[in-house]
Amino acid sequence: MMARWRTLGLLCVTLLTVESAFAEQPLESAYADKVVPFLKRHCISCHGAEKPKGDVRFDGPAPDLTDPKVSEKWRMARRMLAQGEMPPEGKPRPSADELLAAMNWIEDAAARAAVVTRGGVGRRDRRAGSGNRARSSQGIGRCVGQVIP
Ligand code: HEC
């Protein structure tokens, strides 16, 4: 029993470390690392420069979600990913890890954009700090949820 809890604890710590490593990576480099490869693999064939489907493109640099139009597009993308609507039927399904990394990035970027837009630049740093704490306690909740049957 003890050994089992120790293993779970270790797993928990590992998950949290992975999560905070991701949280602390600057948004733009996380975009390049996690999102661009995902988009290239699953989206750009239909949403690139040439005749983009639905007039939606995903081939640009890291998006600025403080722009309401941009934010709307990514919110829609996130919803479609969550519901499995994109990539469309008949295309290879992304793995769960890939999907979660892309969706987490969108959530992170949207949360930060909301802080910047509502908090103003002067208050941005303080608020961003508490946002990170909220995020890590959320991480613990998720972690506990995952390891306790
Ligand atoms: C095989 C082609 C194809 C691929 C691959 C594809 N899409 Fe699409 N996508 C479409 C078409 C066609 C539309 C427009 C019609 C529609 O809404 O179904 C569209 C529309 C969209 C829209 C706009 C929906 C709206 O209601 O305006 C978003 C957002 C989107 N795709 C996101 C993605 C994302 C993210 C990926 C990659 C995970 C992706 N798509 C991959 C074909 C594709």
UniProtKB/TrEMBL annotation:
Keywords: Signal. GO terms for molecular function: electron transfer activity; heme binding. SUPFAM superfamilies: Cytochrome c. It comes from the Bacteria. The keyword Transit peptide does not apply. Residues 1-23 form the signal peptide. Pfam families: PSCyt1. Residues 120-149 are annotated as: Disordered. Residues 43-90 form the Cytochrome C Planctomycete-type domain. This is Planctomycete cytochrome C. It comes from Anatilimnocola aggregata. The lineage of its organism: Bacteria, Pseudomonadati, Planctomycetota, Planctomycetia, Pirellulales.
